[in-house]
Amino acid sequence: MVIKPFKGIRPPKDLVTEVSSRPYDVLNSEEAAREAAGNERSLYHIIKPEINFSPILDEHDERVYQSAVEQFQLFQKKGWLIQDEKEQYYVYAQTMDGRTQYGLVVAAWVEDYMQGRIKKHELTRKDKEEDRMRHVRINNANIEPVFIAYPHQDELDEMIARVTATEPEYDFVSELDGFGHTFWVIEDESMIERITQIFKEIPAMYIADGHHRSAAAALVGNEKKLQNPNHTGNEEYNYFLAVCFPDNQLKVMDYNRVVKDLNGLTDRQFLTKLSEDFIIEPKGCEVYTPNALHNFSLYLNGEWYSLTAMPGRYNDQDPIGVLDVDISSRLILDKILGIKDLRTDKRIDFVGGIRGLGELKRRVDSGEMAVALALYPVTMQQIIDIADSGKIMPPKTTWFEPKLRSGLVIHSLV
Fold first, then answer.
1. What CA–CA distance (Å, rounded) separates 239 from 141?
2. Which of 329, 323, 294, 312 is nearest to 386 (CA)?
3. pLDDT band at 228 (very low <50, low <70, confident <90, very high)
4. What is the pLDDT of residue 393?
């Protein structure tokens, strides 16, 4: 893998909590406007620039993209974002529920993505790709990073441990979710050079979160390459912003489903059809959490059930066929409930594991949804196996938490 240090654009220490924000895609425009209220330094003015208009404009309006670049320039003019003088790597640690994961912030090579060495496990949507491409183009920068996993390396772990034993540049806990964010600068030239060399020996990396950001960044970089008659390969646009975590530190959370109706079935008829492919155990009114691969939790009409897929209903030798999201999509959502396309069907919604199974219960009890299905989370190894096989995971399979904080560092393409 090819990575390089870069001159990060980032906030002064005393402004980091005002500038940094949640990623653009985890909240809607109204939520971003509320979080940014009274804070002219919030990164939302750049990554969710529709909030700069009252009433809030459509996020794809040309004036919105223009506002993003105006705000980005303003932040730099006012000293809310300042570019480092030398090329460096950075370490970004996230802490949630007493568990900390340590990522290396780098400029990743566009060509590694284009050639499939930075591997993906999800399909991207063209409209979302184009939105992020426009944002990257107009700002000439990767404002937000891509979350990448790499096969862990003992020597890298040791170097990062040495860095994180020193005083951090930033160290704060988000008031919104209680997650810790700590950030260090790697200035030592010999360490920078060694990190670059170690990554050259890594055969592949894996996009964990940020498939649209990575696609957009790589496509814009490739565009700039084709448009530049004097292209040398050393330009900053040949790289995009990534935070790379060792695969053994990452935890994938469950990604659950709620459905609005039972496709014309009564509760009893629905359970009878389920019994053709699953062993069903009533669990009463206490929340039941799936306890193993191929075990599911179902909430229906105030009752929890354990569903265990019967042998022969899945293929443990197939990286896709072994996934519980595939089993549930085939045998429950499609076969019984008539939901063929998880991306477009309006009868289904998805709930990230960070919200807990209580959120599933709430949405069914409210009458908004008829049934909820909780899945056992996939593993990082399953994601790697699928990416290595060249296959794509079914929609809404993985939920990584904590999300990367935006605004800690930005990568300029010029």
1. 10
2. 323
3. very high
4. 84
> From the centroid of its chain, how far is CA 187?
28
Nearest to residue 258, comparing CAs of 379, 352, 123? 352
Residue with tokens 């705000």: 71
Q: Is 156 left (phi over 0), alpha (psi -120 to 50) or beta?
A: alpha
Q: CA-CA distance, 76 to 338, in Å (whole number)?
A: 52
> In Å, how far are 146, 209, 269, 328 from 397, measured between CA atoms?
18, 11, 28, 11
Q: Model pTM?
A: 0.89
| Listed residue (125, 123, 41) closest to 79, CA to CA | 41
Crossing angle, helix 62-77 and helix 126-139, to 10 degrees?
40
The pLDDT, as a whole number, for residue 121 is 87
Mean pLDDT of 35-47: 97
Q: In this structure, are residues 250 and 400 in contact, taking their beta carbons and an 8 Å threshold? A: yes
Distances (CA, A) of 78 to 15, 74, 144, 405: 12, 6, 20, 22
Gap between the Cα atoms of 89 and 7, Å rounded: 9
**What 3 state SS string does 225-267 have?**
HHHCCCCCCCCHHHEEEEEEEEHHHCCEECEEEEECCCCCCCH
Task: Report which of 44, 9, 16, 118 is spatially closest to residue 411, judged by C-alpha positions.
Answer: 9
Please give the single-letter amino acid code of residue 258: V
Q: What is the pLDDT of residues 198-214, one digit of tens each?
A: 999 999 999 999 899 99
Question: Where does the pLDDT of residue 281 fall: very low under 50, low under 70, confident under 90, or very high at 90 and above?
Answer: very high
Q: Which amino acid is at 178?
A: G
* DSSP code per residue over 211-226: HHHHHHHHHHHHHHHH
pLDDT at 122: 82
**Nearest alpha-carbon partner for 353 in 387, 321, 325:** 325
Average of pLDDT values for 340-363?
Answer: 91
Q: CA-to-CA distance for 46 and 53, rounded, in angstroms?
A: 12
Q: What is the pLDDT of residue 342?
A: 86
Please count the other Cβ atoms lying within 10 Å of the Cβ belonging to residue 9: 19
The residue-averaged pLDDT of 344-353 equals 91
Say what the alpha-carbon torsion angle 169, 173, 177, 178 is, to the nearest 10 degrees.
140
Is 391's pLDDT higher than 90?
Answer: no
Rounded mean pLDDT, 300-305? 97
Nearest 10 degrees: Cα torsion 353, 355, 356, 362: -130
